Amino acid sequence: MEIQVQDNTHTVVFMLNNSVAAESLYTQLPLKIMVENYGSNEKIFYPPTKLNISNTPSAEGPAGTLAYFEPWGNVVMYYGSFGRYSGLYDLGIAVSGGEHIKELTGEISVTRVSD
Fold this sequence. Notes:
The protein is mainly beta. It is 6% helix and 43% strand.
C-alpha cells in the first residue's frame, strides 16, 4: 500500500506497512486536510476517524517515518529522526520526496497510489 501526500508544490510518497493502523488510515482515503507544524521535526494531520492500533508496532526511527500518535489521534510525518514515545505507532516510511516533508503547508491531499 502506497499513499501520496501533496500540497500545492510538494509530493511525498509513503509505503505503508502491513499493520492494522496503516490499513485503517488507507481505508479513509482520499482526504483533503490541513497539515500543521508540530515540534521541530514533524508535520501532523488529523484523519476523520481514529485509527485502530491493534497489533501495530511502536514507532522509532529515521526522518521519513510515518506514524500515528494515538492519544491525540493525529498522523505524524517526521522530517527529523525521533525516539520511541508512548502511544506512537509505526505506519510506514517515505519512499519518494521525504526531503519535502518539512516544506508541506496548508491544505494537503492524501490519496492512494496503489491498492
